[in-house]
Every structure is written in C-alpha cells, then in structure tokens.
Design a protein that fits this description.
Blueprint: H1 7-18, H2 21-30, E1 38-43, H3 47-56, E2 62-68, H4 72-88, E3 99-101, H5 104-108, E4 115-118, H6 125-134, E5 138-141, H7 149-162, E6 166-168, H8 179-188, E7 195-201, H9 222-226, H10 259-263, H11 265-275, E8 285-287, E9 298-300, E10 306-319, E11 322-327, E12 330-334, H12 337-340, H13 356-366, H14 374-393, E13 397-400, E14 405-406, H15 410-413
Parallel strand pairs: 1-2, 1-4, 2-3, 4-5, 5-6
Antiparallel strand pairs: 7-10, 8-9, 8-13, 9-10, 10-11, 11-12, 13-14
Helix pairs in contact: 6-7, 7-14, 8-11, 11-14
Length: 426
C-alpha cells in the first residue's frame, strides 16, 4: 500500500471491510470464549504506548498484530518487544507476525484487527478515535480524551453510532490498590456528611508553543506528528528522538494539549466527578481567581457543591462531618475513624474494576460498558477545558452541560474548538 492513504481511500477501505461484517461479528461472538484472542493494533508507542505494549503482550487472550508510530525507531522497538515475547512461546523460538505502519489509517483498514490502543499526543485523540470507531474497532484511548470541549460530543456520537467498546485510560478508577474507589464510595455514602467542597491539586493551564525550529531527524515523520496541529518546525522537546524515556513536554503547549492542568487533571477531576456522581454532567459556573494566578479557579455545580483547582496533589473532599484525602500513594480521613469504619452491605457500591486493561478486554467479549466510557472520559476532560477557558478569559463563565456551550458568551464559545488542518478536521 502507499505510505499514505487519502481520506477517500480510507473510507473506501473501511466500507470494504464492512462487507465482511458477518465474519467479523461471528468471530467477536466467539471471542466470548476465553480461548479466543483479540487482535490489537497500537497507534502511538512512545513511553506510555510502549508501556501498554508490555502490559498487553503477556495477556493470553490478546494478539498484538500491528504497531503504528511516526518515529521508525519506536515502532521497530515495540515490534521487537512483541515478536520476542511471542517467539519465546513457540517451539521454534521464532515469530514474525507484527506489522508496522507509519499511517494509522492503514492499520485501521485491516479487517482482522478487533481493537486499537491509542496513545498519541492529545491533539490526535479525536481524529484517531473517530476513525477507529468508524472502522468498527473497539478502542482504548489515553487521557485526557479530548483536546477541546467540542471534540467530546463528536467522539461519543461515533462510539454510539458504531457500537464499539470504549475505555478511556483513566486507570485510577481501577488500580492503585482501590484507594480512589474507596474514597468515592465513602463520599457517596455520606461518611463525611453533606459534601461541600472538593479541592483538586494539579498543575496549571497550557502556554503557547514558542520553541525554536530544529532539523527533524531521519526516520521521523514530523508532518504526520503535527497532523491537525498548526504547521511549525520540528523540536526535540515536542517529539524526542528515537526511543525515549520519560514523558515529552508537548503536554505543556496549547497547540497539542491542555497543560499540566489537563494532563493530571484528567485523572483527579475524573475521580472528583465520580465521587460527586456527576459522570455525565459538569459544573454550571466557572470563576477564575483574581489577578493572573494560574491556581484557585472555582467551579460551582447545580447542587451548590464547589470544586477548586488547587490544594495538595490528588483530591480532597470536604463535608459537613469530615474530610477525605486521596492520592495514588495514600488515603486518609479527618477524623481518622471515618475510614476505620467499614462499609456495610446496605451501602452503595460503584463499578468494580481492579485492572483497567482487563476490564476493557472483558467488555470487548461481553459487549458491556467498561468502567470509563467515552462519555465519562469526555466529561472529565471537559472539566479541564472549562478551567482552561476560565483562565484564558479571566472572567466568570456560565456553562450549559446539556447543550455544551457557554451561556451568552460568544468569546468563550470560540474556545469550544480549535481549527484542525486538512485532511484531519473532525
């Protein structure tokens, strides 16, 4: 196939794949059997994506069949991980069954792929998710799910339209020893009394990218890395050379992400939304702090609960009878006896998952919703985007969670979306 597929050719490929729908559906039905493997392709194998490859390559009901990345060294390294692991499981000690791609549309056009893991920079999430849903691939997409407020509704619509199983990578709902789930259940069951305030400690909003242009290294498709983002020259801070460790700083620039506020905020605001039983909605007011501070923004929900951007890392829930603080390393309460008293059979429990990927894989087989659906992921990302809009405008905003726009504020509504360069508009 050509190195790049046009949009028309991609659509034609997906349409052709749909002609074998009965075969695909029957195999998916058979996937309910534990012995059936789910064929998975990876889109983006930087530090996070490569970590996911290592997690899934050892799952007995998974077959990683394709890797896509715009940096040759990364996709070759991920392919090596996969083929080495599968070779160890064969008598011959050899395995050569993992294809590599530079353009994810070629990967999506393969009818034998059941699901994809998307671990690209944030500015690629919406297009990748919509294209994968249209191709009827089940999806695991990293957080924050979206780059703008408008993208969430588009992803959710396509996921519902094509009936795919979607898991947002907000793994705090499933992992870290169940600390976050415990906090959520204690808050929901009134153990700290009537909830009044939530404080979420994460970093600040994004800045405009002002990095100097550098020469793109050989084997890096910089044009493809940019995709829908504004055109500019390569810089290693955005796209590190070769196989790198650590997390690139494209996260801090508004052209590609939502800053530290969205990066970890998509995790901790997600837990706040879960505890408040607000998974499918959002605050109705946004109040930025006075002056130029990048911390202290206040949200107000329709029920009067206030949530602040600021405080110790993680989530602090303040109620009329006590406080619960939770982060990845600890959960504690004031007074301490709140957490010392176990929940009873009469208490409300939330969706249980202790392994985020296993939850997704199990739902691919059962066709049930996983713990963090596209809508939940979109609403959690919305909180981050609303905060960024508040910091950008520096004035109080009113938000309509049903219609997904700012009330009587044309300037703020211009922040709902960003221009995406052709052919990557959604």
């Amino acid at each position: 196939m050509a190195a790049r597929l046009s949009r028309r050719r991609f659509v034609q490929s997906v349409a052709a794949a749909s002609l074998v729908g009965p075969t695909i559906l029957s195999r998916r039905a058979a996937a309910a059997l534990a012995s059936e493997r789910i064929n998975i392709g990876f889109i983006g194998v930087g530090t996070q994506g490569r970590g996911h490859v290592n997690r899934l390559v050892g799952q007995t009901d998974v077959q990683i069949v394709a890797i896509c990345d715009v940096v040759n060294e990364r996709k070759d390294a991920a392919k090596e991980i996969v083929e080495k692991r599968y070779a160890e499981a064969t008598k011959s000690g050899e395995y050569k069954g993992c294809a590599t791609y530079n353009d994810f549309r070629e990967l999506l056009a393969r009818p034998d792929i059941d699901a994809v893991v998307i671990a690209t920079p944030d500015h690629w999430h919406a297009f990748g998710c919509i294209a994968a849903a249209t191709a009827k691939k089940d999806i695991y997409c990293e957080k924050p799910l979206t780059h703008t407020l408008a993208q969430g509704e588009k992803i959710v619509w396509h996921v519902r339209r094509y009936g795919v199983v979607f898991q947002t990578g907000s793994q705090q709902r499933s992992e870290f020893g169940g600390k976050f789930r415990q906090a959520v259940e204690y808050v929901r069951n009134g153990r700290i009394g009537k909830i009044k305030t939530v404080r979420v400690g994460v970093g600040g909003p994004p800045i405009a990218c002002d990095l100097p242009d550098e020469s793109a290294p050989e084997g890096t498709d910089w044009k493809m890395w940019l995709g829908p983002a504004p055109e500019r020259g390569y810089n290693e801070i955005l796209c590190p050379k070769g196989v790198h460790r650590g997390f690139p700083q494209w996260r801090k620039y508004k052209e590609y992400a939502g800053g530290a506020l969205a990066d970890m905020g998509a995790h901790h605001f997600d837990i706040a939304q879960w505890a408040l039983d607000m998974d499918t909605t959002a605050p109705i007011e946004i109040h930025p702090p006075e002056g130029n501070a990048d911390i202290g923004l206040r949200f107000v929900y329709a029920n009067g609960v206030e949530m602040f951007h600021g405080g110790p890392s993680g989530c602090t829930f303040e109620g009329s009878e006590g406080t619960i603080y939770v982060d990845r390393s600890k959960i504690e309460s004031t007074p301490a006896k709140i957490l010392e008293e176990p929940l009873t059979d009469k208490d409300q429990r939330v969706y249980f998952s202790d392994n985020h990927f296993r939850n997704w894989l199990g739902c691919i087989k059962s066709r049930k919703d996983p713990i963090c659906t596209a809508e939940i992921g979109a609403r959690s990302a919305d909180i981050c985007h609303l905060a960024n809009a508040g910091y950008a405008t520096r004035r109080p905003l009113k938000w309509d969670p049903q219609r997904h726009w700012f009330i009587n504020d044309d300037e703020a509504n211009r922040l709902l979306d960003r221009d995406m360069r052709d052919p990557w508009a959604v």
